[in-house]
Specification:
Blueprint: E1 7-11, H1 15-25, E2 31-35, H2 38-47, E3 52-56, H3 64-74, E4 80-84, H4 89-97, E5 102-105, H5 110-125
Parallel strand pairs: 1-2, 1-3, 3-4, 4-5
Helix pairs in contact: 2-3
Length: 129
């Protein structure tokens, strides 16, 4: 059974970017959770129900890819979307091997990121928004 409100964890060390994505998703009915780095994201995933994780690649303490790998150790089904300004074939392949749901290049278009999150919910939970 699907939860009533999808929870989206937005993880990026850029506060303005986190708030911008929050302003995009909340009016669309998402509950947004924010984390400034990978360690914070792991703490949120441990204590809150999260349905999709957005992860910036370049953050202090843990990269997005390192965070993704740790999330997958305890929440194998949780879809994680990696976002990077330096996306290349090698990073995309490494993210695929770590079972990222998708990879997006910065700057992201809002239609692209909202569509990817919606697809993650549909694919993982058979939930149609």
């Amino acid at each position: 059974m699907s939860p009533q409100v999808p929870s989206l964890l937005i993880t990026d060390d850029d506060l303005d970017f986190r708030h911008t994505l929050q302003e995009v998703f909340e009016p669309r009915g998402y509950r947004t959770l924010l984390a400034g780095d990978g360690e914070e994201a792991l703490a949120v995933v441990r204590r809150e129900p999260v349905h999709v994780v957005l992860l910036d690649m370049h953050m202090p303490r843990l990269t997005g890819l390192e965070t993704l790998k740790r999330v997958k150790q305890t929440h194998a089904r949780l879809p994680c979307i990696l976002i990077s300004a330096d996306m290349d074939a090698a990073l995309a392949l490494e993210a695929e091997r770590a079972e990222a749901f998708s990879v997006l290049s910065k700057p992201v278009r809002f239609a692209e990121v909202t569509g990817t999150v919606r697809r993650a919910l549909e694919t993982t939970y058979c939930w149609h928004l």
